[in-house]
């Protein structure tokens, strides 16, 4: 069996897959409620290593649906892994962008450009 090991290329994304993603994002947003709480804003380097930078913000009260349906992913390019205001904001942006794209009946074809 041959495995495609190509990276950093374009991948065709069928319209149905974009609709599936939109539906999934809407499900997570509908089941997520932001509440006041401490969030991790990053790290600072100290003489003994690194320490998290904590500040007041908003967290998802019950991230069980989010973590089951659209889990965060640790890694260099993936950003934070907390279910907080930044995760929620990314979902809102994705919802709004996909809603606009899918409303255009003659929008053409869709492609994803990987960067790794």
Would you give an account of this structure?
By secondary structure, the chain is α+β, with helices and mostly antiparallel strands. It has one domain. Helix content is 35%, strand content 28%. The protein contains 3 helices and 4 strands. It has helices spanning 15-30, 64-69, 85-103, and strands at 10-13, 34-46, 49-60, 110-113. A two-stranded antiparallel sheet has the order 1-4. Strands 2-3 form a two-stranded antiparallel ribbon. A hairpin with a 2-residue loop joins strand 2 and strand 3 (49-60). Helix 1 (15-30) packs antiparallel against helix 3. It is globular. It starts with 9 loop residues before the first strand and ends with a strand. The mean pLDDT is 90.
- Low-pLDDT segments, ≥5 res: none
Number of distinct helices = 3
**SSE ordering:** EHEEHHE
Name the shape in a single word.
globular
User: Mean pLDDT, nearest integer?
Assistant: 90
Helix content: 25-40%
- Beta strands, count: 4
Rounded Rg: 18 Å
Query: Main sheet?
Result: 2 strands, antiparallel
Class from secondary-structure proportions:
alpha+beta
- Give the strand order, joined by hyphens, for the main sheet: 1-4
The fraction of residues assigned to DSSP E strands is 25-35%
Total domain modules: 1
Report the end-to-end length measured between terminal Cα atoms: 23 Å
Write a brief structural summary.
The protein is of the alpha+beta class and 116 residues long. Helix content is 35%, strand content 28%.
């Amino acid at each position: 069996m041959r495995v495609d090991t190509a990276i950093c290329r374009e991948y065709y994304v069928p319209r149905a897959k974009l609709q599936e993603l939109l539906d999934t994002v809407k499900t997570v947003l509908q089941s997520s409620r932001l509440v006041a709480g401490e969030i991790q804003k990053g790290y600072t380097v100290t003489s003994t290593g690194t320490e998290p930078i904590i500040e007041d913000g908003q967290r998802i009260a019950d991230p069980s649906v989010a973590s089951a349906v659209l889990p965060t992913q640790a890694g260099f390019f993936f950003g934070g892994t907390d279910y907080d205001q930044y995760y929620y904001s990314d979902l809102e942006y994705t919802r709004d962008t996909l809603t606009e794209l899918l409303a255009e009946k003659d929008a053409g074809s869709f492609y994803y450009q990987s960067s790794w």
